[in-house]
Fold:
Amino acid sequence: MNIRIGSRKRIQFTDKTHPALGIISVVLGFCSFVLLLVLCIFSGKARGMSGIEAGVLGILDFIISMVGFIMAVKCYRKEDIYLLMPSIGAALNGVLVIFCMILYVIGAA
Structure:
């Protein structure tokens, strides 16, 4: 006698898909996070004197995060999609945009 309690598999038929913009947003957020970590480590080793290259890469990092956030927000207008990837992309890129802005304000002060 085989008794199963609570381990029933559920089958759902749905037309929902993961949006491509949401997946790209998560990938951009991850790349932006890695670039920010590399810049912070490089700047720490250079004792704050890392040069114009680090500044340009920092601005590029901010732009990548902003593009990823906008792509994630655009996904919310679509119907019949899973909202997991756009939510992760919006949260990750939003935090990175805010963090980059805080760094720029601290650096300007």
The chain has a mean pLDDT of 88. The radius of gyration is 20 Å. The chain is about 70% helix and 0% strand.
